Amino acid sequence: MRNAIGYILGFLIFIAGIPALMWRVSGRPFPWAPAQPWVIIALILIIPGLALSIWSIVHMKNVGKGNPFDAYNHEVAPRTRHLMKDGPYGFSRNPMLLGVYIYDIGVLVWLRSWWPLIIFAIEIILLTLQVRSEEKRLEADFRDEYRAYKSSVPRYFIK
Q1: Which long-range contacts (CB under 8 A, 24 or more apart) does 58-64 make?
Q2: Of 56, 65, 57, 62, nearest to 88 (Cα)?
Q3: Does domain 2-152 have CATH number 1.20.120?
Q4: Which one-letter DSSP state was computed for residue 74?
Q5: What whole-number distance in Å separates Cα of residue 79 and Cα of residue 61?
Q6: Which stretches within the chain are classed as H helix?
Q7: DSSP per residue over 14-55, as a string?
Q8: Among 97, 129, 93, which Cα is nearest to 18's?
Q9: Do residues 89 and 151 make contact, with C-beta atoms less than 8 angstroms apart?
Q10: With contact defined as beta carbons under 8 Å apart, do 23 and 46 qualify?
Q11: CA 54, CA 29: separation in Å to the nearest integer?
């Protein structure tokens, strides 16, 4: 049950909630689906962003034997029991967040409004703080194995 709570919270916050808030502050009517070229660009970002996040979640469940939702060192769902260093975690220590960021950039392109950038900036700040907290926990849990992984794989994509 705790696994389900983590997945539901993750979906409600990152896939539905934050984009809905971005939409709200953009001032665009709902639903807003203009037949414009930038919508194609937005979808080119949204779809792979979601795919990367889903791949990361599935990999975390199957290999890490845990759930991604760990809020500021408060275990909302069972934490990973194995350090993941392959699959999407082979090129990014946080591929799930990288996918969310790509997805959100697609939403920003779709909305074509400056106001949602504020929401996106706040999200990046809060999630960076979360990632730093999570890195401390992973270092405590996996010690030298995590330190070696951390030194060879970038936090998001570029080292």
Answers
A1: 59/84, 59/87, 59/88, 59/89, 60/84, 60/96, 61/3, 63/87
A2: 56
A3: yes
A4: E
A5: 10
A6: 2-10, 18-26, 37-59, 95-111, 115-152
A7: IIIIHHHHHHHHHT--SS-----HHHHHHHHHHHHHHHHHHH
A8: 97
A9: no
A10: no
A11: 29
Residue found by looking up tokens 């106001």 in the block: 115
Amino acid 88 reads P
Q: Helix 37-59 crosses helix 95-111 at what angle (to 10 degrees)?
A: 160
Instruction: Count CA atoms closer than 13 A to 20's CA, side-chain side.
Output: 7
> Within 13 A of 53's CA, how many CA atoms are on the CB side?
21
* pLDDT of 46: 94
- Is the Cα dihedral 4, 8, 9, 10 positive or negative? positive
**pLDDT given at position 67:** 64
Q: Can you say whether the dihedral through the CA atoms of 90, 85, 55, 100 is positive or negative?
A: negative
User: What backbone torsions phi and psi does residue 155 show, to the nearest 5 degrees?
Assistant: -60, -45
Tens of pLDDT, residue by residue, the chain (159 residues): 555 666 677 777 878 888 888 988 988 876 667 678 888 899 999 999 999 999 998 888 888 776 655 555 555 556 677 888 999 999 999 999 999 999 999 999 988 889 999 999 999 999 999 899 888 888 988 899 999 999 999 999 877
